[in-house]
Amino acid sequence: MNKIMRILFPIIAIAFGIFAIVSGVQKLQTKDQYDASTVAVIEGIEREWTGVDSDGFDEYDYTVYVSYEVDGQKYENVKYPGYDSSMQKGDELEIVYNSSDPSQFAEKNITGNSIIFIAVGAVLTLGGVVAVIKAVVRP
Question: Looking only at Cα atoms, what is the longest distance across the chain?
């Protein structure tokens, strides 16, 4: 049983690592479609209770809604792809969008976030592979 656990957890780490790498690469591949920028205003932040963590504290998911304007066309209460605890209603965020379809937008730092995903994925994958090899080689 102990040997199975020593292999199972690293395999899970490898799976999460590969998922993070693929997600990061996909984000990097789409970054070129966002060829213009504008400022969006946070219209609201919804908080949804998701459960209780292992320490007994409530856990929440947050959804941010923004509005922005491009060439006179308003896009209102559109779901923003991220959340930061410092965000508040009325805050301004710089976004990037596809000039041929301004309804497609992303947070401005898409490259930095993608690189972080890839780096974390690489560490998880490498650590998982090393742990699996150790578990198999070790009696």
Answer: 69
Q: Is the pLDDT of residue 64 over 90?
A: yes
Distance (Å, rounded) from C-alpha 121 to C-alpha 16?
A: 7
Using one digit for the tens of pLDDT, what is the confidence trace for 51-62?
Answer: 998 899 999 999
Confidence band for 116, pLDDT divided at 50, 70 and 90:
confident
CA dist 66 and 79 (Å) reads 6
Element (H, E) at 81: none
Query: Tokens in use for 109?
Result: 């730092």
In order of 3, 10, 43, 138, the CA distances from 132 in angstroms are 10, 6, 47, 10
- Distance from C-alpha of 27 to C-alpha of 25, rounded to nearest angstrom: 5
